[in-house]
């Protein structure tokens, strides 16, 4: 049985089936291991991990803790309650998703191309062309403001090879949506989004073979990877016209609310507000994407994990606003409906986070594909709606390629 336990309770002889540390940008521990000596126990505790999953069939058991399933169910309920919170003054999107998708594609690809060229130039010690960066950021931001579903859809349709470039655009777009939900003004949203686009530029000074390494990193390699933050800040300092907010995002995106982050181990409000926002967005984007060493998790599952981590690692009040900006079943989430059908969330409505537009694709009971049909869960039965999300589902478990149904 898989159980979830606080790290204070782990001891030698237990089998950790998941170290529950997806918020780290690189696994310096294997994700599952038998705890053979005290050193391993301490290493998990020192890493700032607060809760892990153990497999009681493969190692020692412990009483009075929830099973992984029970823990997941109860967090999901809490998260749904949070999403129900009334009061969302968000105006409706200014363009339809289909219309916006056509416009957003150019902005997304241009953004990714630009990050590539900025990084290539930085590698050669050349100046960052700030005018073109600002222009690209404005295009991405404006698309998000018109209808954020388009950029979020494009991010889901990512390709594996270009990770850093697409991650940068993803973080940029999501930070813009987050900043909008925070009711920041347009000039500020642009600065925050700019910080998002450049936040990982320090990776140009990290050895490529370490970044591409599929296995476990040595402590030394992990330290080197972490140095991308100070390296990035160094690069920004050599560039004229970088707003302070972009520096804050760069320097704080790996700090954690409980002080367990890096490079400075800042705590709570010692971390800038935009840095605390960037930490949430960075982790969300990273864990929902396929990498050399892990498969991306379903966005709905990612939200539940982030909710759990927000008790320690993230600012809980900001997490609540983040939920408003992308929903608890974000675009690309595979969900199971009350009617026993599976569908993919294609459009999130800021006014009602629990009732998005879902493309129904599969009959879970009889196990066959259905002709895709869009169901607006906010509408009553007989008017294109009349169904309800029961839970999110793993696409892997069902063998469903969600991306096929997104475009
Ligand atoms: Fe980073």
Automatic annotation (TrEMBL):
Species the sequence originates in: Azospira oryzae
Matches recorded under SUPFAM superfamilies: HD-domain/PDEase-like (SSF109604)
Chain intervals for the UniProt region annotation (Disordered): 65-96
Domain HD-GYP per the UniProt entry, residue ranges: 142-338
Pfam families the UniProt entry points to: DUF3391 (PF11871), HD_5 (PF13487)
Cross-referenced PANTHER family: CYCLIC DI-GMP PHOSPHODIESTERASE PA4108, CYCLIC DI-GMP PHOSPHODIESTERASE PA4108-RELATED
Lineage of the species this protein comes from: Bacteria, Pseudomonadati, Pseudomonadota, Betaproteobacteria, Rhodocyclales
CDD domains associated with the record: HDc
Name recorded for this polypeptide: Nucleotidyltransferase with HDIG domain
Composition bias type Basic and acidic residues, residue spans: 78-87
Signal peptide (UniProt feature, chain positions): none
